[in-house]
Amino acid sequence: MVGDPIVEVTGLRKRFGDVEAVRGIDFRVEVGETYGLLGPNGAGKTTTISIVAGLLRRDAGEVKVAGMPMDIDTAAPRALIGLVPQELAVYPDLTGRENLRFFGKLYGLSGASLRRRVEEVLEVIGLRDRADDRVDEYSGGMKRRLNIGIGLLHEPKLLILDEPTVGVDPQSRNAILESVEALSASGRGVLYTTHYMEEAERLCDRVGIIDEGRLVAEGTRRELIRLVGERDRVRLQGSGNLSGAADALGRLDGVGDVVAADRSLEVVTVDAARLLPELLAVATEAGMAVTQVEVSQPDLESVFLHLTGKALRD
Amino acid sequence: MTKAFTIAAVGVLRLFRDRSNIFFVFVLPLALVFLIGSVFGGGFTPTIGVSAPDGELAREVVSRLEETDGIGVRSYTARDELVRAVERGDVQAGVILPVDFDEALEGDGTVAVEFLARPDAAGPQLRTAVAAAIAEESALVRAARFGERRGLTEAFDVARRLQGEVSGVEVVTRAVGEALFPSSLGRFDLGASQQLVLFMFLTGLAGASALIETRQLGVIRRMMSTPTGVGTILLGEVLGRYGVVLVQGVYIVAFSLFAFGVDWGDPLGAVAILVVFGAVSTAFAVLMGATFRNAQQAGGLGVILGLGVAALGGSMVPLEIFSPTMRRVAHLTPHAWAYDAFAELVRRDGSLSDILGELGVLAAYALVAGTLAVWRLRVVTTWE
Question: Quick one: average pLDDT of B68-96?
C-alpha cells in the first residue's frame, strides 16, 4: 500500500499581513503512512494543515489529495479527509451521539449506514456507555476522543490530526496515541502535527521538521539523526580484559569510536539496535565480562536543536 | 439543501435545549401581551357586584344596571362576600342595597345605597352608571310619592305605567376630534403586534450569541472540512435562526388569536409581515454574529439594541403618541414599518395590497443587512 501519495504539497506559501506563516513547504504523505509535522508553537503547522484540509486559501503552491487539487471551494477531496482540529470542535450542549450523527450527515452518511458508523465509532473511541450524555458532562479526555471520533465517521483515506493531545492528562494522552497507532495500522494515511518529540517518534513513519514556516528537514527518525551527524552510544560496563575488548570493538564495521573508562567502554555507532548483539559477542570473546549495557540514542529533540538552534518548546 | 436543514435543525435543537429560552421565546411575549392588554388595553367590560334584598324596587334597580351598556352585573347574596370580591378584583365595583330598601321607599323614608370600588380608573365610571340607575329609580319613587300626596291611589303603578309610555331624555355621546385609536380596537390588539415585533427582533439578536459560540468552538471550520459547501453551511446557520424567529412569530399570532381574541387583520398580510420581519431579524442577528468576537459582548449589546430600537420604533409606546419629528426618526427602524403595516391591517381593515410599501421597506432592510451578514460570515469563517 505504501507508495501512492494521498497528499502532495508543493511550494506552499501563506501570509497573514506582514507575517509569512508558511514559506514554501513541500511534502507528501503516502497511503498507509503516518507523517508527522514536528515544530514549536507558531511554526506554521496548523496553517499548513488548514490549507491541506481546504479551510484556508493559500497564496502560492499546490495541494493535491489523492491526485485531486484541493482548494477552499472544492468539495470532492474533502470526502477523503477526516480532520481532527486542535480545538474541541463539538457542540457541548448536544450528546456525543448527537454530535456524531450531525457530522455524519455532513459527511454524507444517512439511514442505516449512519447508524452503523455512529455505533462503530462510539465503540472505537470507548464512549458507547456515555453516548447519550451531554458533551459538557464529559472529561477532557472523553471530549478529545469524541473530537477524534468525528474525523473517523466516514472512514477517510487521510486522517489529519492537529495536536490532538494538547491539554490532555497523561492517561488520556496514552489512550489517544494508542488509537492513532491503531488507525495507522488500519492502512489509512495520517498527517499528524505535534510539538511533542516523543509523539512524533512513537507514531510517525516519517517526520517533517518545521520551523518559522519552513520545512527544515524531513525523513525517518534515523535519517534525520544521521543527517545531523548524531550517533548512538552504547556503554558496556563490566570486568576482565577491557582494553582487548576495546581494540576488538574498534575494528567492527559501523563502530566509530571506542572510549575506555574505569570499568566501562563507550562505543559510538550509527545503529546501536542493529549492532548490539555483535558488540556483546565481540566484547565477551575478547575477555570482557559484561555486567551492564546502556544504550543512548539521539532523539528528535537533539535533531531539532541542531537544525534550528533552539529547543522544541521555545 | 438537506445538509442546510441538518445544520438549521441543530441550531433550533440547541436553542431549546436551554430551558430558559423556552420561557423567553414562548412564555414571556404572551405574558406581556396579556399584561399590557389588561392594564392599558381598551374594550374591557367592567363588572359590578350587586347585593340586593328580594323586593320589587330593588329588583328594578338591578335590572336597570343590567340594561346599562358597557357594564356587567354579578349578584352576591351576602354583603361580606361582595366586599371580598371587590377587594380581590373579581368585580371592579360593588353596590349594596339595604335589606329594607323596598319598605323604606314605599314608606316615606330615605335609603342609603352603599357603593364600593377599587382605586382604579374604572371606579368613577362605574359610580356614574350606578348613580344614573339609582336616579332613574328615585325619579319613579318621587313621582309616586307626589301622586300619593295628591290623593292618587295606586300611585306606584301609575308612575310605572307613565314611565313606560313617556319617552325619557335621550343622551347621545359623540366623539369630538380625531380618535387616537378606533373604538373597535380590542384590548390586546395594539400590544400584541408591538410585542410580536419586539420579541421577534430580540430573539433574532439572541441568535447572534449562538452563532459566535459556534464559530468560537471551531464547529463551523469543522463543517467546512466536510464535503459541504460554504454556501450550504451559511444557509443552514441562517435558516436555523430564521426558523426560530418564524416559529416564535407564528406561535405568538396563533396563541394570542385563540386565547385573547387578538385581531391580526388580513391573514395573508399578517403572514407576509411575519415572513419579511423574520428575515429582517435574522439578517441583523447573523450580521452581529459575524461581526462580534465575543458572545457576551453580542448578548449584552443585542438586548440593549433590541430594546432600544423597539422603543424607538413604536413597540413600547404607540407611534401615534410620538411628535412628528420623532415619528420620522422612528421610521429609521424596521419596527416602525412593521408597526405601520399591522396598523393598516388591524385598525383600517387593510389587506396585503395595502401594506406592500411597508413590506418593501422591510424587505430592503433584510436584503441590505442580509447581504452584509453573509459577506461578513463568509469572511470570518474562511479566514479566521
Answer: 85
* Domain match, A113 and A218 both: yes
Which pLDDT does position B261 carry in this prediction? Answer: 79
- B-chain residue closest to A58, CA distance: B383
Write the CA distances from B265 to A15, B96, B236, B347, B383, integer angstroms. Answer: 58, 43, 32, 8, 47
Q: Which three cell numbers stand for residue B64?
A: 336597570
In terms of pLDDT, which residue wins out, A165 or B177? A165
Strand A68-69, strand B114-117: pairing? unpaired
What is the total count of domains within chain A?
2
Q: In chain A, which residues have their Cβ closer than 8 Å to the Cβ of B3?
A: 105-106
Residue of A nearest to B220 (CA): A89
Whether residues A62 and A174 fall in one domain: yes
Residues B374 and B286 sit within 8 Å (Cβ to Cβ): yes
Q: CB-based contact (8 Å) between A85 and chain B?
A: yes
Residue A237 domain boundaries: 231-297
CB pair distance less than 8 Å for A87 and B223: no
- Based on the domain organization, do A196 and A260 belong to the same domain? no
- Of A17-31, A96-110, A249-263, A276-290, the one with minimum mean pLDDT is A249-263
Q: Over pLDDT 90: what percentage of chain B?
A: 18
Q: Which three cell numbers stand for residue B2?
A: 438537506
Alpha carbon of A182: minimum distance to chain B alpha carbons (Å): 23
CB contact under 8 Å between B218 and A88, yes or no, is: yes
What's the whole-model pTM score?
Answer: 0.70
C-alpha distance from B219 to closest chain A C-alpha (Å): 5
Query: B127: number of CA atoms within 13 Å, CB side?
Result: 11
Chain A residue closest in CA terms to B232: A106
Domain CATH code at residue A279: 3.30.70.260
Whether the CB-CB separation of A62 and A10 falls below 8 Å is answered with: yes
Outline which parts of chain B fall under CATH 3.40.190: 47-165
Report ipTM for this prediction: 0.79
CB contact under 8 A, A106 and B14: no
B47-165: CATH, from 2.60.40, 3.30.160, 3.30.70, 3.40.190: 3.40.190
Are A253 and A107 within one domain?
no
Considering only CA atoms, give the Rg of chain B.
30
Report yes or no on A304 lying in a domain: no
Query: Do A84 and A200 belong to one domain?
Result: yes
State how far the Cα of B94 lies from the Cα of B47, in Å rounded to an integer: 9
